[in-house]
Design brief:
alpha+beta, four-stranded antiparallel beta sheet, two-stranded antiparallel ribbon, 8 helices
Length: 359
């Protein structure tokens, strides 16, 4: 299958992710008794529409790149007792976070699908040391030690060991291992990459000098490692934001929809078989879904996280001032935030296109 096919697949994936997000808002609003004026799959020209028994317009639109859930009284006052603005604070909170919650759940399900085919998982358990490794000893590491934390970061997978050793600021790390059922912490431990000879190829390689174990899969292991992977995805998003704020990476290194579609297409084309492509793209889609969940809950105007923040702030102010805050002010701020986000999206899209052209 060619690049064009996988580009279409990538676009449909975004449509599904956004549709699931909006469905989370929709079903939670229904359960909380809030009126939904329209639930739309897709954006742009209307293809099909019907009205449900509860008066909600169910729409299908031409462009499979989005969707929306229009709630009565979402951006202003309404006399309708079933309006979002008249619902209890806890109901509004649940409705706002439901979209991100559904994205996270979808990501977890996709990881489970991918891991259901796994025959074994690599675990951060030391099984052996490479010849000449200086870290073996009572004051260091021992065979059987399980990496638990490195510099405060929980270790779930073998790959986490090298990832979080590489992110330290100096040459030493605080390493916590589980040894004989107890946590042992090695403070300021000088663990660095060294040259070792690969026993199979005879080549000189840079390694930490450790061999790790493998755990055969079972139902519990697949569930546990799927959950670990979802948590790891959340952490990767936060670390990416941290790098952006600290300047470790620049805005030009960000990828938007165009860049992600390009990556998905490359993953599909480079996979050996159609089945491999399915698993690889499903795993990437899981990361994107969880990424969307985290990003959408950031306290930024126009995002659900920004709406949650304003919900909590206005609720506190109303308790102190004993009067209702006019929701039009919040609408102004969210509109300004939406304009800023659209500007950022256009900038990132331009960079994505420029990178593709420059290849």
């Amino acid at each position: 299958m060619g690049t064009f096919f996988y580009v279409i697949v990538a676009i449909l994936i975004f449509g599904v992710l956004i549709g699931v997000h909006e469905w989370g808002h929709f079903i939670t609003a229904r359960l909380c008794g809030v009126r939904v004026n329209e639930f739309s799959l897709g954006m742009g020209p209307l293809l099909w529409q019907r009205e449900s028994k509860r008066g909600t317009l169910i729409s299908l639109r031409a462009l499979p790149i989005g969707g929306y859930c229009a709630l009565e009284g979402e951006d202003g006052d309404s006399d309708d007792p079933a309006a979002f603005s008249n619902a209890a604070v806890w109901k509004r909170f649940l409705i706002l976070v439901a979209g991100a919650g559904m994205n996270f759940l979808l990501g977890l399900v996709l990881i489970l699908v991918c891991f259901s085919q796994a025959e074994a998982f690599s675990t951060p358990v030391i099984t052996e040391f490479m010849e000449g490794c200086p870290y073996e000893g009572e004051d260091g590491l021992l065979v059987g030690d399980v990496f638990y934390k490195i510099n405060g970061q929980r270790i779930y997978f073998t790959s986490d060991v090298s990832t979080y050793l590489a992110r330290r600021s100096g040459d030493t790390s605080d390493i916590t291992v589980i040894r004989d059922g107890k946590k042992v912490t090695l403070e300021d431990y000088p663990m660095t990459l060294r040259e070792y000879v690969d026993e199979e190829t005879g080549e000189t390689i840079l390694r930490y000098g450790l061999y790790f174990g493998v755990q055969e899969t079972g139902v519990w292991a697949k569930l546990r490692y799927s959950w670990y992977s979802a948590l790891d995805f959340v952490r990767l998003v936060w670390l990416g934001l941290e790098d952006l704020v600290t300047g470790a990476v620049g805005v030009k290194q960000m990828s938007g929809v165009v860049g992600i579609v390009d990556v998905i297409a490359d993953v599909g084309v480079q996979s050996e078989t159609g089945y491999d492509a399915f698993l690889n793209i499903a795993y990437l889609a899981a990361f994107i879904a969880i990424n969307l969940a985290v990003m959408n809950l950031l306290p930024i105007p126009a995002l659900d996280g920004g709406r949650v923040l304003f919900l909590l702030v206005t609720w506190l102010l109303e308790r102190v001032l004993r009067r209702r805050i006019d929701p039009k002010y919040e609408a102004y701020i969210h509109t300004a935030g939406l304009v800023a986000l659209m500007g950022l999206m256009i900038f990132v899209m331009y960079n994505d296109v420029a990178k593709i052209i420059a290849r």
